[in-house]
Amino acid sequence: MSTQPSKELETFENPKPDRDYEIRFEAPEFTCLCPKTGQPDFATLRIRYVPDERCVELKSLKLYLWSFRDEGHFHEAVANRILDDLVKATRPRKMSLEADFYVRGGIHTVIEAAYP
Amino acid sequence: MSTQPSKELETFENPKPDRDYEIRFEAPEFTCLCPKTGQPDFATLRIRYVPDERCVELKSLKLYLWSFRDEGHFHEAVANRILDDLVKATRPRKMSLEADFYVRGGIHTVIEAAYP
Amino acid sequence: MSTQPSKELETFENPKPDRDYEIRFEAPEFTCLCPKTGQPDFATLRIRYVPDERCVELKSLKLYLWSFRDEGHFHEAVANRILDDLVKATRPRKMSLEADFYVRGGIHTVIEAAYP
Amino acid sequence: MSTQPSKELETFENPKPDRDYEIRFEAPEFTCLCPKTGQPDFATLRIRYVPDERCVELKSLKLYLWSFRDEGHFHEAVANRILDDLVKATRPRKMSLEADFYVRGGIHTVIEAAYP
Amino acid sequence: MSTQPSKELETFENPKPDRDYEIRFEAPEFTCLCPKTGQPDFATLRIRYVPDERCVELKSLKLYLWSFRDEGHFHEAVANRILDDLVKATRPRKMSLEADFYVRGGIHTVIEAAYP
Amino acid sequence: MSTQPSKELETFENPKPDRDYEIRFEAPEFTCLCPKTGQPDFATLRIRYVPDERCVELKSLKLYLWSFRDEGHFHEAVANRILDDLVKATRPRKMSLEADFYVRGGIHTVIEAAYP
Amino acid sequence: MSTQPSKELETFENPKPDRDYEIRFEAPEFTCLCPKTGQPDFATLRIRYVPDERCVELKSLKLYLWSFRDEGHFHEAVANRILDDLVKATRPRKMSLEADFYVRGGIHTVIEAAYP
Amino acid sequence: MSTQPSKELETFENPKPDRDYEIRFEAPEFTCLCPKTGQPDFATLRIRYVPDERCVELKSLKLYLWSFRDEGHFHEAVANRILDDLVKATRPRKMSLEADFYVRGGIHTVIEAAYP
Amino acid sequence: MSTQPSKELETFENPKPDRDYEIRFEAPEFTCLCPKTGQPDFATLRIRYVPDERCVELKSLKLYLWSFRDEGHFHEAVANRILDDLVKATRPRKMSLEADFYVRGGIHTVIEAAYP
Amino acid sequence: MSTQPSKELETFENPKPDRDYEIRFEAPEFTCLCPKTGQPDFATLRIRYVPDERCVELKSLKLYLWSFRDEGHFHEAVANRILDDLVKATRPRKMSLEADFYVRGGIHTVIEAAYP
User: Fold this and answer.
1) How far is CA D7 from CA D23, D38, D44, D79, in A?
2) Pairwise CA distance, residues G49 & G90, whole Å
3) Residue H15: what are its φ and ψ, rounded to 5°?
4) DSSP letter assigned to residue A104
5) Residue F37 burial (CB count, 10 A)
6) Distance between CA C82 and CA C80 in Å, rounded?
7) Nearest CA in chain B to A108
8) Across the strands, what pairs with D24?
9) Does J1 touch chain I (CB under 8 A)?
10) pLDDT at residue D1 above 90?
């Protein structure tokens, strides 16, 4: 596996597909750019999912999140985009994502989306 | 967009209208006046909503909250008023507002209202 | 309105009677006497209610709580009494009260009652 | 009432039997002995109940908990025993007990039981 | 009972089999190895179960957890494995396990599984 | 010893007068009245002292603090008064008192005084 | 005393001038305007002083802080200004002020100044 | 070494006598009896010392603290007694002890003593 | 002032040069790259200084910190570099910087440097 | 650099040798064995040092701490040993180490040592 930022999420076989169990990640090192001003945005991402046949590989997830570093994304759009990418890559039984952004204009914003 | 306080809330198109997802704001910089005494009141506002076709624009929300600075409002009334204004501007699938006021008379007051 | 302790709770018209919304008070300055020993008891009261036609006036609530200062009341009885008085004064859609007493005999006691 | 440890729990008449309300106690000063090694065990007990006709008297509860000080009891058994004794003494509408023991062997144990 | 690491979980008779009650363990001293790199992993395990006829013996649980110290296990697999072993040894009415791993690659991972 | 509020502080002989050691009390149940408005004030008192020949008796301290319940005192004066009374009663090597009052007018006040 | 915002700080006679003791205020309800943009700024002020002959009156302090509500002030300047005004009004033995401003541009700013 | 409560503190040779370093213990499981009422008291003990030639053995310390379980001791006396015993057993370069007792009469007491 | 990342730190005249007072910034949104692996690093920076003739302008500080986003820097070097740049730009009476980096390899690193 | 546990600590040249600055590490993943019982011990290590000519390399530090995993060490000895090894490898201007061990026998132990 490379160590370059990449939108390609790698997965591995779920070691316990006959049980509904939950995997949770907290990733406080997410950053992208504001599409209007070009200024950096920062967020902590919290992901929870019940895997079906595939689990997301941890290092691959790190490289995937890194890949947003130089891209412009709106808060609401990027949270839904990451959820969609993770759903597409792992086809989970269910998944949710919480994107907890740093204060802008004196207001703290959190976006929470779920599949299905 | 101007940078003057304004009751006009601007919105933008929901980038993911086919999913029910939640947007949460915490705004600790709300102040208005007591209609009886004219003295300042302070609150932290917590807003959560599931957008339908429109999302509220963050800077516009800041200017909207600022617009209460020199107005007199009772606790119970202003919390319901802000919820109503936000509902009218965004027509959300659902929305709630929590207004957490500073201590007055040794008592800490919170108002929580929801739509629908 | 006087500034003497008083069991008379004043109310005002609910500014938003067509919505079920919640008002919460936290009052950490409640004290009464133990009816057996005459010694002071202290509690934090937490009140939540959904108003119907009337809301309780904040200063009046402060004076009402003050009125217990020189009276003897058992923990279980005073919590239910305050809830009853507030229900009678405001006729809320629902209301609950939590009385969180300071440690006595190495034991920390909380009473929680609800209407209806 | 004596101030000696005693398994006799005293009760008093519920001042508000027509309402389901909850009484909660937190008692951080519980200690008994390990029946295998004779070494002391320590726990914080958290009791919640909805009284029916009788409430447990606070000082009596303190003396009751003290009565375990020199007795050997297993964690699982003593938690259920105390719940049973309190249920028998007060005949509550419902009751639960959480016994939160100090770390043993690097493991922190909590037992939680409920009636009915 | 030996004091060597062992996959053999010892149990004892449930002292209160006629009641559904919960036993919770928090074990912050779990470590095993990464099967890919051989490097140590660390986790806090949180186990909750409702015993049926047998309870797991605390010291035996400690030795069982110790037995993973020199073994390679993936996060998702080891959490399910420990749950399976505990279910097999105690045949509980229900059980859940949360494995809360230390940060790797800037991401904090928790696995939570339940039986049945 | 009586169980009535009393300004008479009882003391006992310091069991270790040949060592400078510190005794600290935290008393969250202090209340007196505002001399201007007659309304109740509340504070947590924190006392630290190095005893010389006499230590203050704990129950006597409780009754002493209770004795302020129906008296009017300004914040700055009552903190210094209590320190003076305790110094006079125990003649300590050193002593300090912190009176941490509840919020009034949106402002939280603490008075800290020391002897000598 | 009026209840209008006012730069006139009222004082009263120090009840214990023969002792160096400290008075601390925490005032979380300070707001003024940014002189460049006109937008509101918010801060918590923490004041500590050792009074000499005069103490600052609490309600007067509240009205004084309120008087900045519609004025433009830079962070560094307003913190020093308030300290200077308080020093001038009370001539304390020593005084310090900490102004803890809300996040702007992703950066949290605190100014701390002391006299002498 | 026995596993019975014992006032005999065992020690071992300091592995690094040429360096001044500190050893800290926090023991939350201390209990003794009130000499006046016979009722149990509970405390958390915090011990810090710089060893000279001998260090106190951890299990022996546990048995030593256990030995107070059925003895009557005043707060101030027992804290100084334990410090004295530990100083006598280990002859440290310096040592301090903090005994943090549970609330009695609404007052939380801490005793802190140091050698030399 | 531009809104592009820039190493040029802007300053303004200290409004109170005749007083030694402290300005503190906490900036949780710092990120640069690891010079060995090219992977992103994240840190919270805490800066404290006593200004002499010039203060650092807040927006300029934000743009300055942003300018490290695409540059490779070792932890120890970048902390000292930022301190040096800030010292050079403002010529403070004294200044310190704490760079609190996210966990790498299971280890949390903080660098703290001061001038002079 | 290998990724095997190793007592060989690698260092690199201090990038700012003309300044006394501090580097702090917190490593919560330390484990070794009890030399008496062979059972695992766990600790969080906190290291602070002012480098002279050499800094310790972070990955090398991780491998060094890992190297204790299968070795028996007493608490007091291992804390001093690690400090000695780090001092020998980096020749710092000053260094301290705090080893914060998990609860054993109901007692929480911390060892803190410093050089010089």
Assistant:
1) 21, 21, 18, 15
2) 10
3) -75, -10
4) B
5) 10
6) 6
7) B26
8) C110, D48
9) no
10) no
**Mean pLDDT of all residues in F67-81:** 97
Q: Is E110 on the interface with A (CB under 8 A)?
A: yes
Angle made by CA atoms J10, J12, J16, in degrees to the nearest 5: 150
DSSP collapsed to 3 states, A12-56: EECCCCCCCCEEEEEEEEEEEECCCCCCEEEEEEEEEEECCCEEE
Encode chain B (116 residues) as per-residue pLDDT tens digits. Answer: 468 999 999 999 999 999 999 999 999 999 999 999 999 999 999 999 999 999 999 999 999 999 999 999 999 999 999 999 999 999 999 999 999 999 999 999 999 999 99
Give the residue on H whose Cα is nearest the Cα of J113. H21
Per DSSP, the three-state class of F36 is coil
> How far, in Å, CA of G64 to CA of G82, rounded?
9
Report CA I44 to chain centroid distance, whole Å: 10
- Cα separation, F85 vs F24, in Å, equals 16
F22-33 average pLDDT score: 97
Q: Please identify which residue in the block is written with the tokens 């915090």.
A: H46
Q: Which residues of G touch I55 (CB under 8 A)?
A: 76
Pick from I51, J30, B35: nearest CA to C15: B35
Which residue type sits at I33? L
Residue C3: the pLDDT is 81
User: Measured between beta carbons, which residues in chain F are less than 8 angstroms from residue C31?
Assistant: 31, 40, 42
* pLDDT of the residue at A2: 63
F42 in contact with C at a CB cutoff of 8 Å? yes
pLDDT(C17) > 60: yes
User: Which whole-number Å values give the CA distances from H87 to H60, H64, H80, H83, in the listed order?
Assistant: 15, 14, 10, 6
ipTM: 0.94
Q: Are C42 and C20 in contact (CB under 8 A)?
A: no
The confidence score (pLDDT) of residue F2 equals 63
Q: Which residue has the tokens 């019940």?
A: A50
The answer to whether A41 is a known catalytic residue is yes
Alpha helices in J51-106 (DSSP H): 58-66, 75-90
Q: Are D71 and D32 in contact (CB under 8 A)?
A: yes
Query: Going residue by residue through chain I (116 aa), what tens digit of pLDDT does each one get?
Result: 468 999 999 999 999 999 999 999 999 999 999 999 999 999 999 999 999 999 999 999 999 999 999 999 999 999 999 999 999 999 999 999 999 999 999 999 999 999 99
User: In angstroms, rounded to a whole number, what is the distance separating the alpha carbons of residues G37 and G52?
Assistant: 40
Cβ neighbours of J31 in I, within 8 Å:
none
Taking Cα atoms as reference points, which of C50, C32, C27 lies closest to residue C42?
A: C32
Does E100 score more than 80 pLDDT? yes
Q: How, if at all, do strands D40-50 and D11-13 pair?
A: unpaired
Burial class (CB in 10 A: 0-12, 13-18, 19+), A88: exposed
Q: Has residue F1 got a pLDDT over 60? A: no
- Chain C residue with minimum CA distance to B96: C21
Q: Distance (Å, rounded) from C-alpha H92 to C-alpha H85?
A: 11
The per-residue pLDDT for range J38-51, each reduced to its tens digit, is 999 999 999 999 99
Q: Which residues, including other chains, have CB under 8 Å from residue H101's CB and lie 6 or more apart?
A: H41, H42, H43, H75, H108, H109, H110, H111
DSSP string covering E4-47, please?
A: S--S---EEE-S-TTS--EEEEEEEEEEEE-TTT--EEEEEEEE
pLDDT tens-place string over residues E14-65 = 999 999 999 999 999 999 999 999 999 999 999 999 999 999 999 999 999 9
Assess contact for B1 and B45: CB atoms under 8 A.
Answer: no
* Token representation of residue E50: 């409702």
The residue whose two tokens read 């009494």 is: C81
